[in-house]
Each structure stands twice: as C-alpha cells, then as structure tokens.
Amino acid sequence: GLNPIFKKSASSPAPFKGHARPVSLTQNLPNPFDHLTHIGWKSEIEGEVLLQVYTINGQLVDILTDMFYPPGEFSVVFDAAGLSPGIYYYRLTLDDYVFTKKMVLTK
Fold first, then answer.
1. Where are the alpha helices (DSSP H) in 1-107?
2. How many whole angstroms from its chain centre is CA 39?
3. What's the helix, strand, coil split of the chain in %, to 5?
4. Fewer Cβ neighbours under 10 Å: the N or C end of the chain?
C-alpha cells in the first residue's frame, strides 16, 4: 500500500488557514490624487462586491460598484470631480469581509 506519509500530505490543507486572506483591498493609486484614482481588490471567492467612498465624517459620497464579481483581480476608477480636497475613506464589503482604506484628494 501507500506510505501513510504520502497519504497524509495528499490531503488538501484547510482553505485560507493562517495569514492568507481570500479577499484583499489595495491602496488607491495615485495617492494623493487630484481628481482620478484607481482602487483595486483581489478575491479568491465570488460574491457581491460593494465599494463605497465616505467623507472623513462618515457621509457616503459615492458607490463605485455594487454587483456580483467572480474570483480575480479587479479595479475601478474613482472620479472625485466636484468634491472638496481632503481625506476620504473607501470601504470594500464582500461577504463577511470588510476593508477600509484612506485616500487624500488634492486640488
């Protein structure tokens, strides 16, 4: 028969164990930005992705996407035309994963 060591190593490890995260949000580029910036994320799972932009006071400014995405790498463009310079936050929600990052709008 097979050596038990090989049997054991052939079993697949628990998914997303340890530090690996199935969903990640990248820092917007460029940052600071004067009116256009790119916001990206990676996901190993499919699901509804909600990407929102907020003021420093928590006021919702824009919804950049709110739709179903397959696993993969994606990016959207945020156009801040008409917004005041300052600090804004963007938040990605996918299933139970929620990530928030800061960006700086200059003029």
1. 4-10
2. 8
3. 5, 55, 40
4. N
